[in-house]
Structures are given as C-alpha cells and as structure tokens.
Amino acid sequence: MGGTILVLNGPNLNLLGEREPAIYGHDTLADVEALCRAEAAAAGYQIDFRQTNAEHEMVDWIQAGRKGLAGIVINPAAFTYAAYPILDALKLVDCPVVEVHISNIHRREAEWRSKSIMTQVVTGIISGLGVNGYPLAVRHIIWARSREA
Questions:
Q1: Which of 80, 88, 127, 134 is deepest in the core (most CB within 10 A)?
Q2: Which strands make up the sheet holding 3-9, listed edge to edge?
C-alpha cells in the first residue's frame, strides 16, 4: 500500500539527548528519525520528519497534509497543553493521528503536564515508552492502513 507518514515534533525536541536526559534519555532526534524511517521502510512507507519551535509552522504542516497522508505521528511537546490552533488543525485531517510522548506525562511532577488537549482528537496516545513510542506509532498507522484495504 505505502504512502507518507508525517512525523511532527514540537518545541525543544531539537535538543533531545541534551535536554533533561534523566527524563527524556540520551537518544537524539536524529536517532528517532532513523527508528521511524526503518519501521516505515520495512512496510513500503515514507517518512516526512519535522521539528519546530513555532506553533504556526506546525499548523501549516498539518494543514498542508490534511488530505492524502497515510498518517501523522505527533509529539506536540509543550504545545500539548495550550496550542489550540494545532488542536483545530488536527481536527481537519483525514488520516490516523498518534500522539507520542517520550516520558509518561501522567507521572510527571506537575499536574498540568498530564493534561493533553490533543488527546480529544487523536486516534491514540503513546506515553512513557521513551523514543520507542515513535516506531510503535508508525507501526500502528501502517497496521490501521492495512485494515482499510
């Protein structure tokens, strides 16, 4: 079947591997991209992998891919809690969307970190499995697409 899976990463994930390694680990965003590409390639899919610190840029990417993508994997990072424009953009897509968080947001120190506004519109959420959550999200999208055929 194939197709493209858009993998979106929010603020500060460009510093993955350096930023709070006790919480987020030592893997870099380049390592995450390699994991996603390997998972997708094995099933004949492509990955479009992006990171931004700018909310409007993520909205633009979601809007541009709202039709025709195999799926979206999104780690909204700090956008998780209050980025309503991203939430509204996700409502427009016609593909599975899997929200990923490297840490278990439900076990974080601050209560506000456990409340994702994105969860209300995504297909599913993977939280707390480290960077392994990304290829699992890619695998789910591939599986979901195979069920549609």
A1: 134
A2: 45-51, 3-9, 71-75, 97-101, 124-127
Token digits of residue 131: 């960077």
User: For the chain, what is the mean pLDDT?
Assistant: 93
User: Is this structure's pTM higher than 0.90?
Assistant: yes
Domain range holding 97? 3-148
- What is the DSSP-derived secondary structure letter of residue 62? H
Share of the chain above pLDDT 70, in %: 93
CA-to-CA distance for 66 and 27, rounded, in angstroms? 30
Whichever domain contains 85, its CATH number is 3.40.50.9100
* Active-site pick, 26, 81, 84, 101: 101
> Looking at the predicted structure, is the pLDDT value of residue 113 above 70?
no
81 is a catalytic site residue? no
pLDDT in tens, 81-108: 889 999 999 999 999 999 999 988 877 6
Per-residue pLDDT, 1:
67
Burial track 120-129 (b if 16+ CB lie within 10 A, e otherwise):
ebbeebbbeb
Dihedral pair phi/psi, residue 49, rounded to 5°: -105, 125
Number of domains in the chain: 1
